[in-house]
Amino acid sequence: MFVCPKCQxxxxxxxxxxxxxxxxxxxxxxxxxxxxxxxxxxLVAPGPDELWGKALRGTDDPACKCPSCRGVMRSVDHEIAxxxxxxxxxxxxxxxxxxxxxxxxxxxxxxxxxxxxxLEVRQQLALxxxxxxxxxxxxxDPGLGSLRRWPALVGxxxxxxxxxxxxxxxxxxxxxxxxxxVSVLGLLRPEVVTALQLRxxxxxxxxxxxxxxxxxxxxxxxxxxxWFLIVFANDVEDMLGTxxxxxxxIAATIFGNVLQLAAGVVLDDPHPYIGAGxxxxxxxxxxxxRMPDARLGSWDIPxxxxxxxxxxxxxxxxxxxxxxxxxxxxxxxxxxxMGIGSxxxxxxxxxxxxxxxxxxxxxxxxx
Length: 367
Fold this sequence. Notes:
367 residues, 3-stranded antiparallel beta sheet
């Protein structure tokens, strides 16, 4: 129990407003006791240290007992702005006694201004900051625990944080499965490719404008088209709906092949045309235009495909825009490497697919 050194009344503890501590106050005389440590936080320097220095050199006041240890306190006269204020200081426990209103003479440290940003806003900003850090970790760590990300090991793009989809992507998976089955049959039995391929104008079959979409010249071309179809077309199916998705695929395939035939006539190219490049390009471009900043990552492995690194694997993250450019370049390089026709002519099929993808984007961008 703390006792008032002036009137011997019982002191009551009171928490100081906007201060990190308590004072002991006398209801009878209005005086209060505070520790020297608390005063060093409350009062402008060097006031508290000057009080303590004078207490060390001062004389005891037998009439004034410390409210805490009941030892004799020392009276200290302190001049503030021309006024002399007398306080009592206990050397033993560093308790300081102020009579009523005496503490107000000492200049106080102003508490920090209240943060003008509401607590809820600060919490939302903190959550956004944590989300950005999580995104950064996702970029730096590919997290190959999911089967969907394994193709990144061979340089193919994978979505880092794909959108939440609302359909089962029936059209995408039916198309991918059909391409895989027919193309494998074509690789095993060349007569299948001969029956479905798109031949030059001198030997032209209208149905081949569509059937050539399902056959490929080699495993690499097949896998590349299948993966880009799965990565990009499923999101497009969710955005367009299954019916419009089919319309865009058919239109892109036919228009791309028509342009390819026309280019073959102009350049007198004898090669037949096969592959799903035109239709897939429509999906890649539509995805890019609708979600240009969507992030896709892959492992850049030297020797497996052209690397900009220093001779060791690295995890690369590009936007959808960057991967669209990479898709076009990969198709041109693959055409040249496999000798399946002129890269210029094959590029016309991709140009046709891209045109259809652009038109669908313009028609649906406000939906």
